[in-house]
Amino acid sequence: MTPTSATSAAKQSTSSIETKVPGRSGDPGAALKGVLLALMGTALFTIMFALPKFAGPASSGTDVPGLQIAFIRYFGGFLAVLPLAVTTHRKGVSLISPQPQWHLFRASLGIASVVCGVYAATHMPLANATAIGLTNGVFAIILAFIFFGERIAGLAWIASLLCLAGALVVARPAADLVAAFQSNPAAFVALIGAITMAGEMAVLTHVSRREPVARVLLYVNALASLALAIPAFLLWEPLDDRTLIFICFMGPVAILGQICNIWSVRYATISLITPFKYSSMVFATFIDVLFFDLLPDGITVTGCLLVAFGGLWLARLQRRRND
User: Fold this and answer.
1) pLDDT tens digits for range 210-237
2) 3-state secondary structure (DSSP) of residue 94
3) Is residue 216 within 8 Å of 69, Cβ to Cβ?
4) Which residue of 81, 114, 200, 303 is surrounded by the most CB atoms within 10 Å?
5) Number of other CB atoms surrounding residue 254 within 10 Å
6) Which residues have C-beta within 8 Å of that of residue 246, sequence separation ≥ 6?
7) For 202, which DSSP code?
8) CB–CB of 52/244 below 8 Å?
9) 3-state DSSP call for residue 209?
10) What whole-number distance in Å separates Cα of residue 319 and Cα of residue 273?
11) Integer distance in angstroms from the first to the last C-alpha of the chain?
12) pTM flag (> 0.85)
């Protein structure tokens, strides 16, 4: 196949994806499907982020460097998506993107959010870093309005903010969170991480509504693996078999989560599904209870209930809107 014919095939497959976006026209159940897929994706990514905790420290007894974990996660994701990519290619769908710059941009945003998150978590109280990171949902809704014209009604804003409030209650930032922005540069790094994470969500929405799933997954995992390979090698810590197995599972689990996220934005708007991402705090609490014997206190339970109530309220508002 010549470069010209490959590009032509990519454009043809892209146009077919763009004109057949599922659930975006006349499907009353599309929003519910999008929400359920978003919840599944959030649960899978919560499990993925918990895997290093199951794995424990490196062989040397020190924590595994964040960049090393990120590289293994993306490279494992690349290997996991190869069978899907090969199957897609055999069906006559090109894996060459007509808009590679968007995939490169998304990979850059993803790496930036990981690096910022790791830096913030290691240079300021974890609760504060988590609380700042949770603002990514607000930025995602703003970007969805700017770039996709998605609007959110007044009551839906209240329900969304209720989800955010519940997540903040669970995170329990310190009282000096505002003062941290004046004295600790890590607070600004955490904020940049939240913005880049929101930007990645916006770019994912753009490409996933125009290109096949295999191509979207293949590009981001391949590009991120290449970008992280050298830094991970320089910081590499030897891992025992148990730790390596747990961390290697991050890639396949992330691929399943990414597939759910890609289909969720095809079925529903960012402004609808973003507040449901705060359910990660609820899923994380369940993991702590089931596997680490960490029973939640009253404050954590209250925060989880706020997230659940806000999500159910938002879903009810969306159902009334469809009716």
Assistant:
1) 899 999 999 999 999 999 999 999 999 8
2) coil
3) no
4) 81
5) 26
6) 51, 52, 54, 55
7) H
8) no
9) coil
10) 13
11) 49
12) no
Which tokens sit at 159? 């329900």
For 169-241, strand residue ranges (E) read: none
By the 8 A CB rule, do 183 and 125 touch?
no
Here the tokens at position 180 are: 């941290």
Q: Which is nearest to 205 in space by CA: 249, 257, 266, 155?
A: 266
Alpha-carbon span 58 to 65, nearest angstrom: 9
Closest to 311 measured CA to CA, from 42, 26, 28, 29 = 42
Residue position matching structure tokens 């993925």: 48
Question: Contact at 8 Å (CB) between 265 and 208?
Answer: yes
Residue 7, Cβ neighbours under 10 Å: how many? Answer: 15
Rounded Cα distance between 184 and 214, Å, is: 41
**pLDDT tens digits along 260-270:** 999 998 898 88
**How far, in Å, CA of 171 to CA of 174, rounded?**
9
Q: Identify the residue whose tokens are 């014919």.
A: 5
Whole-number Å distance between alpha carbons of 36 and 318: 13
Half-sphere exposure of 219 (CA within 13 A, CB side): 24
Q: Are 208 and 21 in contact (CB under 8 A)?
A: no
Q: What is the CA radius of gyration of the chain?
A: 20
The helix (run of H) or strand (run of E) holding residue 99 is none
Measure Cα distances from 229 to 88, 234, 246 in Å.
27, 9, 19
Percent helix, strand and coil across the chain, each to the nearest 5: 80, 0, 20
> When comparing pLDDT for 241 and 17, which is higher?
241
